[in-house]
């Protein structure tokens, strides 16, 4: 009986330690894409679903991003949690990121919308020099290449989607930022070369071979859970995020940021 109890307690301690590592120590997921539309390779860092995660070592995060030396940084929503009252953790992180590049772009997630002070947080992002895209687009130069960067809000319809891509030069490489992966897919006309999304957390709990057990907006065993997907001529990439919501639990799905390299085809 004592041996069985010892084994049970040991396994429980190992499981708790494993989950703590999964939710506290992030990794950098490397993604490589190709395009004929760019003149020189570009680097993108994607940070999604931070949820004001104070377990993340900010100094380590900034050093990792500095090492990547990105041309742009994209924040694909839920940087704060619906319950977050003190924004300083997230704002300080973003201010430090701006010392690496001033090309930082943000789109709303459902948690910014649900937070009673979400608009205040977004205004603070603007004050910190972040480009906030609300169903709109902008163009930027990266290494002599014109890049369209479009952004949609969390709740969109076809009119919002069309507005976000209105007037873009289709010859340029086009990136669409969306917190939800499945919403823009419903309306996509294939003008985007790359859609960057989050929201799913990779399911938080994953099983070998099967993948995510459940994801918001998609139910059980979702198709679009984490990683790369090809939709016609468009590439969809879903980052599983730096934080958690509801329960701070992850399994086979460590918190992460993404380093995305788009290389000249």
UniProtKB/TrEMBL annotation:
Any GO MF annotation of the entry: metal ion binding
SUPFAM superfamilies recorded: Metallo-dependent phosphatases (SSF56300)
Any one GO biological process: lipid A biosynthetic process
Gene Ontology CC: one annotated term: membrane
Domain Calcineurin-like phosphoesterase: 42-202
Key words, A-Z: Hydrolase, Metal-binding
Presence of keyword Lyase: no
Domain of life: Bacteria
Gene3D superfamilies named in the record: 3.60.21.10
Pfam families: Metallophos
Family annotation (InterPro entries): Calcineurin-like_PHP, Metallo-depent_PP-like, Metallophosphoesterase_sf
PANTHER family reported for this sequence: PHOSPHODIESTERASE YAEI, TRANSMEMBRANE PROTEIN WITH METALLOPHOSPHOESTERASE DOMAIN-RELATED
This protein's name: Calcineurin-like phosphoesterase domain-containing protein
Species of the source: Sporanaerobacter acetigenes DSM 13106
